[in-house]
Design goal:
The chain is mainly beta. It has one helix and 21 strands. The longest helix has 14 residues. The radius of gyration is 16 Å and the shape is globular.
């Protein structure tokens, strides 16, 4: 049976409740990854990565295409990226050639995308089918905002728009030393302030 959690966000216009659903299959280990089949389970993964604060690697895989409109959007608010500067995503995320649609990011802080900050992670076989991904700061990518040292991103594709002040990329906003991005492509519109740090695949790099 799936476990349900909820959290409440207050605003001037009222109170909105968004459900997180813990995956019913998988423990998050490399041998037994979380099986993600809904936007609510993906939201749970984001909160889970925050909660463990880099104390262990997390492994997950998609088992279905996911429509994100139930957890983020113009009215629901911004997607909360998986992995933050003090709780980086470390582990693996296997997309199994599934797609994510209607990803909405409206960030006022750094390092955002489906994933915010990854370190020594492996993200593969994933498509962002549609979305509006924007930030008033920097390091914004459809797949990951900051692909930290020795992260591997492969066979990932983006069709969403990405707009930030600087370091905007169709796959990664910024990539660190030793990071590898291969067999990826972008067809989304990518833009940054004064075209500074803007690329179809990556916006900026340490290399």
């Amino acid at each position: 049976m799936k476990r349900f959690l909820s959290f409440v966000v207050a605003s001037l216009t009222g109170v909105a409740s968004f459900a997180q659903v813990a995956p019913s299959i998988g423990s998050g280990s490399q041998e037994d990854p979380f099986k993600i089949s809904s936007a609510e389970e993906l939201l749970w993964l984001s909160k889970y990565v925050d909660s463990i604060a880099e104390t262990k690697s997390v492994h997950a895989e998609l088992i279905a295409d996911i429509d994100m409109s139930s957890v983020c959007g113009e009215e629901k608010g911004s997607w909360k990226s998986i992995g933050k500067p003090k709780a980086r995503f470390m582990g693996s995320f296997e997309g199994n050639n599934h797609s994510i649609s209607n990803l909405y990011v409206n960030a006022t802080d750094t390092y955002n995308g489906l994933f915010g900050v990854a370190r020594s992670a492996h993200i593969s076989n994933l498509t962002i089918e549609s979305g509006n991904i924007k930030s008033t700061t920097y390091s914004l990518g459809a797949i990951v905002g900051n692909a930290g040292n020795y992260t591997i991103i492969e066979n990932c594709h983006n069709y969403a728009s990405v707009t930030s002040k600087r370091f905007a990329g169709g796959i990664a906003g910024f990539m660190g030393v030793g990071t590898v991005i291969k067999r990826c492509h972008n067809e989304g519109t990518i833009s940054s302030g004064n075209d500074w740090g803007c690329g179809g695949i990556v916006g900026g790099s340490d290399d």
